[in-house]
Amino acid sequence: MSKTRHGKPSIRDLPTKPRGPRPAVIAAAVLLAVGIGAAALLLRAREPGGAGSPEASPAAQRTRASALAAAADSGFGALNGRWLRLDGGYVLEIRAVDAGGTIDAAYFNPQPINVAKAEATRDGSTLRVFVELQAPNYPGSTYALTYDQGRDQLGGTYFQAALQQRFDVTFVRMK
Fold this sequence. Notes:
Blueprint lengths: L22 H24 L11 H16 L7 E5 L5 E7 L5 E6 L3 E2 L1 E9 L2 E8 L8 E7 L4 E8 L4 E9 L2
């Protein structure tokens, strides 16, 4: 071992530390990346219609098609579409209604507001829609609407739960 003129070991003789991350850190990072990728694939497979999901099977697609056909036969198909509330720019989007009356719906003001429940019922030839919202400014607010086929409108009552008030409302179909 060589010494400097002050009697200390030379820098060349000091043990060197490995440069860059240690192998264990690299291995942990690789395992983490693989785990995140695997989790993403599993979540995607669970999405409706995702690869490997039951909804992607031909049998599931036939079942869904027959449910949609039954919904059309029930007359609920007339409710599908985007509906604009005339007094404020609120939008009710009815994406689909199954034969049992369960509605796949979204509500916007203009940002999305959580739809807790949406269903359609038939009373003779009259179609009714019930929508319950559940969000910070809409805790249990509801719409009770009736479809007017002649005017192609949804009309009825909006119950604003936070204010405990009811309002008459009309929605028109957006083209």
